[in-house]
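Risk mitigation, structural track. In case the binding assays with nicotinamide-adenine-dinucleotide fail to produce interpretable data, a predicted complex structure has been prepared as a fallback.
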Amino acid sequence: MKILLTGAAGFIGSHLAEALLASGLRVVGLDNFNDYYDPALKRRNLTGALQNPAFTLKEGDIRDGALLEALFSRENFEAVIHLAARAGVRPSLSNPLLYEQVNVEGTIRLLEAARLHGCRKFLFASSSSVYGENPRMPWSESDPDLRPISQYGATKLIGEHFCRVFHQAYGFPVTAYRFFTVYGPRQRPDMAIHKFTRLIWEGTPIPFYGDGSSLRDYTYIDDIVAGLLAGLEADIPFDVFNLGGGHSITLAQLVENLGRRLDRPVLLDRQPAQTGDVPATLADISRAGRLLGYAPVTSLETGLDRFIEYFLAERGRG
Ligand code: NAD
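Fallback model:
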């Protein structure tokens, strides 16, 4: 099977690329190496995948219709796994049009190209952000109350709607996956665990928003990859799945945990809660468990140790 993997050089994409290749699949990775964070990191993320002859890298933008047409005509993809996006929540507030163009227009272009070229599967990376501040926790896919509170969350929800409409209109098989705060080696440098680790290590105060009681459901990267591989295997015409860890911890607990693991004091720069940040996230993962056999296995302790090992190795490289 040949797969188009968008966002292949990113945090999740580079891990997934390696896992797909390890299962014997051929993968074309499409990424534009934008500078949302250091593109050199993204190039490093792909070191492993690029050593495998079954991996091809295409540098380009998912909004480029001519590029997509040429790629789909030439490659005969059986499946598309669409991870490329503007992924940060807070920056979406100051750049909503860019988020709309990449996350909505880019997704529509890929859905259209995949359908016209007879792909048999389309997997879309959505987000827990679609739930907004929904008070009914744990969040379930069957809950119709989806009111994102960030522009980022809104683009992901619109992306899901287009997935559903493409399925309804053409019978095109599409599944969407709502990831809950993913962490592990190669995590984006702007994400909390990576940022806090860096600041604690450097002895710099952590911008600490709110009173520390906000709750997050953290999901280790290998569990997300396992969920996506199961989704690729499954014969599901249309569905939406939560991929989360199924537990949440407070911001204060996370920061204390990182300080303990790094054996360094934690300095806090207390700030008001941020617009766009939800107070809590928690996934009901029973649907993914039932239909995909999804069962996260990595504890937060193990996952944080692996992240810190990666972080220190990167530091060692300078
Ligand atoms: P990432 O930024 O590391 O990866 C995204 C990749 O997409 C990057 O390599 C980037 O260069 C590429 N990209 C962005 N715009 C592009 C474009 N126009 N054309 C081609 N490539 C483009 O982010 P990530 O954390 O790996 O997230 C991957 C996906 O998972 C995203 O869709 C994100 O919204 C979603 N998601 C992530 C999390 C998380 O906790 N990391 C949570 C929920 C959802």
